[in-house]
# Entry
Amino acid sequence: MSSQASAEGQQNGQGAGQEVTGVPILLDGVTKQYGSKSAPAVDHLTLEIPAGSTVMFVGPSGCGKTTTMKMINRLIEPTEGSIVIDGEDVTTMNGDELRRRMGYVIQAGGLFPHMTVAANIGMVPKMLGWDKQRIASRVDELLELVSLDPGQYRDRYPKQLSGGQQQRVGVARALAADPPVLLMDEPFGAVDPITRQRLQEEMISIQQELKKTIVIVTHDIDEAVKLGDWVVVFDEGAHIQQYDSPERILSDPANDFVADFVGRGAGLKTLGLARVHEVPRMEAVVVTPEQTPAEALRQAEESGHGHVLVLDKQQRPIAWPSVEQLRRAEKLPHIHEENLPVVGTGATLEDALDTMLVSRAGAALVVGARGRFEGVVDLDTVMETLRDRRAGENQPKAPVGTNDEDITLERSPETGEITIVPSGGGAR
Amino acid sequence: MDYVAERWQQIAFASWQHFSLVAQCVILATVIAVALAMVCYRSERLREFANGLTAVGLTIPSFALIGLLITPLGFGVLPAVVVLTFYAILPILRNAVVGLSSVPSALVESARGIGMSRTATFFRVELPMAWPVILTGMRISSQMVMGVAAIAAYVLGPGLGGLIFSGLSRQGGANALASVVTAVIGVIVVAMILDAILALIGRLTISRGLRV
Ligand SMILES: Nc1ncnc2c1ncn2[C@@H]1O[C@H](COP(=O)(O)OP(=O)(O)OP(=O)(O)O)[C@@H](O)[C@H]1O
Ligand SMILES: [Mg+2]
# Structure
């Protein structure tokens, strides 16, 4: 019904820079009808998934998210339409071979209980005929990637792991043969909220490193806007209600359905999208514990700051006394003070605000790798960053997504960009 | 006890034959039962059919079945093997169907999802997962078939059954009782040895991941 197009070279993912290892996926007029009489579970879906980006499928239960995802690796065969991966129509190729080139993670990991962690992870490489040595070193590499100590966990069985650890091994198994595409169906649905939070953070940093093309099914809108470069909101029959960036889904819902789905507090949710490293940092007055309070006071007065930051030799914050405290002090603190208002560069603005609001200075200390001090952020700089994001003008155009049957896809030969052309040449 | 001492060699030989007949029939039955289960386990209707077959099969008196087989198969080892294998199949089939169909569908899906073929999924995921249950079926079968094997002596099959039948036919005669008692004890000992061997096989072949 429409031309096959590929979007190679189009890199819509946020935080570009790393090399993209993912490939573009295109669902072209895909329909799935389970019974001959029932309404289609997926109805003429055309969806572009740009290379190296994370696309989240959200929507109410039974709207066809899982069906859509499973048609990408053909665990479910489409009734109609075609799936194009990296420019190649995979609708008729051998399904098992196709799936070996894609990672697949289900809820609770889906690990084989009768195999060790290493055997689980090494399964796909083994099927691909890698030698033992290469499989073993790949297993260790992946365990490290998902923050599990290889020596400790390699030979364990799935039942000897916690839910979160099983989920990590599931992700490692999916990444084993370095597939360009990763499909995950409610991957963090079966773990407790704190573990889920951690796994989400890990997923973000893994993706920053690997830049795969990732499709994640979830029914949690917070998870969708947090992890996704793009979010698809589906209704019954996989009808797209909105396919857009998380910011625009939150700040500019396309219709009441999306607005209801996003729910209240959409403005606050944008705080969870931006991260501390996006906020410009300010300098602080820095002293060492060996200096005297008088010296510290003089430095503070010279620069007009109300607080002085004491750093140890590794540049890690020890204490952050105010000028008043310094006047009363005999010497500067040597011992690391607990409860310093510290945030990591990867923390969300929500976390940063939370930290700031309880801090005496009304600001937070930003630390990078190994806890090294990198700068200070305060309410004003955070608000400014938020305003810039809300404007959202410099965001890239959303990928193609529609349930319209009467269209043709056209691919620009120069940019690889896909556009929709209504068939009938504008007669509609 | 003189009876045993005098015929030690004959008893040992009969015991070995008994053991080997049962063991081979159970192995043969396992192969057939797993193959049948492989065909049945995915369809609700075929599963019910298999379970019905098992239930009905177990109610057929073994003596009658052996008698019936004399006409087509004659006397000797063949009818004995056929009857033993038939009975051995039943519990293994039932357990194999239960074991295979209780493998979580999410596991099968994740095996298929990472690119394992249908066959690979069956032999590397579903069968190993169902193996402990199948092995339990084999142990039940081997116990059950021990007794049936003794009756198979009626068609001149091998094993300890011969001693029982010859003892019973000479009732009141010299050594008649000793012959029967020796054979019965022999069957029990052979059964215990086979069960121990199957238990050992279980320890060696059931993945530690399924036991922890
Ligand atoms: N194997 C099947 N046979 C028949 N109908 C099915 C089958 N699988 C799914 N469906 C139907 O297709 C529709 C979409 O199902 P799907 O599993 O894709 O929903 P989902 O969006 O993943 O829902 P959930 O959030 O509950 O997982 C549902 O109405 C469901 O009943
Ligand atoms: Mg689902």
Notes: The pocket of magnesium ion (ligand 2) is lined by residues A 65-66, 217 (CB under 6 Å). Chain A has two domains: 19-273, 274-428. Confidence is low (pLDDT under 50) at residues 1-17 of chain A. Chain A touches chain B through 33 residues (CB under 8 Å).
